[in-house]
Amino acid sequence: MPDALTLGFSTFASPPKGVLVVFCDDHLKFGPATRKALAPTGDLVARAARADRFTGKGGSALELIMPEGLKLPRLVVIGIGKVADAQPKDFLKFGGATIGRLPKSATEATVLAELPSGTMSPARAADLAQGMRMRAYAFDRYKTKHKDEERRVKLKVNIAVSDVAAVRSAFAPREAIADAVDFARDLVNEPANVLYPEEFARRAGTLRKSGVAVEVLNIAAMRKLGMNALLGVGQGSARESRVVVMRWNGAKKDEAPVAFIGKGVCFDTGGISIKPAAGMEDMKGDMAGAACVTGLMKALAARKAKVNAVGVIGLVENMPDGNAQRPGDIVTSMSGQTIEIINTDAEGRLVLADVLWYTAKRFKPKFMVDLATLTGAIIVALGHENAGLFTNDDKLAERIVKAGHDTGELVWRMPLAPEYDKQIDSKFADVKNTGGSRWAGAITAAQFLQRFVADKTPWAHLDIAGTGMDSRQSDINKSWGSGWGVRLLDKLVSDYYEK
């Protein structure tokens, strides 16, 4: 849990302390416990709502300082709109909005978790608490000075519910997921001089404490396996490349695992095909796919998921020294396919080519999902609202889309078709690593990856360039590194692959 926030649960009988947060629908109706708590204010809330044109629309808020009749510093009324239309992901947003409406100076708050009907199920109350957890995250460990308006004092939030034991039980797996999202966020936000491949591998190794088996492949092991596509990317860096294999075994020993693969370019200069200086600092986040996979494995282990799962991440730095890979070089991938390097800044797909092949051949999974901040082209197509989904399997696509809708981590399916292959056919090798034009860049990247999916394994590629870093701010995320994908893939696993 973020250091600045402590969450607790109690019954409605406990007297409120600190800032009081309550919920209403789009007719300004409150639940019975809320009406009782607000009774000393008379018609104050109704009068303030009229003056502020507050109607209880979902996500809106009404704030009253030193409300008459209450010996409390502040009252916050959050609208939930039409109760019948509210979905689980909306309650995460309401929880995030709760934290967002509390002043930075607040040390204590009470949240009455009830609907106008008087019942908020344990699951929805737990969603509310999870949203609070996720909104409270901040990455400020390197700041030695804070402006007064930025400084959050330690905040204790008590959530009043109808059944404390049931809510605590429902919150436990959600808290594990929130912890995992924060873990992924930390990885993405870290500067590259702190989080380089060996350090990333060390942090992934901390999952051993949760029961995850962690194996780290060094340069010699990768060379023996023939991972020359991945090794070529990292050969210009003073930092050695690594591949990390994480395994969670929560099902029968002989059951095939589900597999997740992450691009982990801890810093991407572009290599010899160097990027412009403007904005290059953001390339510390080019490992957001690997961060998501690591966070997901942490979540599955923490909630004791009844599934066998494998997470494999390729960790490199793409740097332009005298030993760096050149445009025109040809490398032989682990699959045996040869790759002509056209642009050294199309490096993530080279990392994934070897890791995809390795994962399919070694683990023979039910499916593979890879995540990568792969192309700027996907941001042109989809902005920061959706990740691009490419897949060879319709059922897997349907399940990922549904999990994305349920969690609010949205994906949009993009095409794969042999007609795009001609753009990456090479005169000198089996394939070249970029199509060499602006057109369909995200698609040709996915077409490239598809050539390295062995044994007709069901596979999906998520291009998260627009969602994994410098992502859209929301009620539950105010971080540059969003931890995007942890909740989506956890939902995919829990809904369809656990027994």
Entry keywords:
single chain, 499 residues, alpha/beta, Leucine Aminopeptidase, subunit E, domain 1, Aminopeptidase, 2 domains, 14 helices, elongated
Describe the fold and architecture.
The chain is of the alpha/beta class and 499 residues long. It has two domains: 5-163, Leucine Aminopeptidase, subunit E, domain 1; 177-496, Zn peptidases (Aminopeptidase, 3-Layer(aba) Sandwich). The chain is built from 14 helices and 17 strands. The protein has helices at 32-38, 44-52, 88-101, 122-135, 164-189, 197-205, 219-225, 228-234, 288-302, 348-363, 377-382, 394-407, 441-450, 486-496; strands at residues 5-11, 19-24, 61-65, 74-79, 108-112, 155-161, 213-217, 242-249, 258-268, 308-318, 330-332, 338-340, 368-372, 387-391, 411-413, 431-432, 459-463. Strands 7-8-10-9-13-17-14-15 form an eight-stranded mixed β-sheet, sandwiched between helices. Helix 9 packs across helix 14 (486-496). It starts with a strand and ends with a helix.
Task: Kindly report the average pLDDT value.
Answer: 96
Question: Numbering strands along the chain, what is their spatial order in the largest sheet?
Answer: 7-8-10-9-13-17-14-15
The CATH homologous superfamily of the largest domain is called: Zn peptidases
When the domains are counted, the total is 2
Q: Helix proportion of residues, in percent?
A: 25-40%
The best one-word shape is: elongated
The CATH architecture of the largest domain comes to: 3-Layer(aba) Sandwich
Radius of gyration: 24 Å
Main beta sheet, described?
8 strands, mixed
For this structure, the quaternary state is single chain
Question: Could you name the CATH topology of the largest domain?
Answer: Aminopeptidase
Q: What is the CA-CA span between the terminal residues?
A: 29 Å
Report the top-level CATH class of the largest domain. Alpha Beta
The percentage of residues in β strands lies in 15-25%
**Coarse structural class:** alpha/beta
DSSP helical segment count: 14
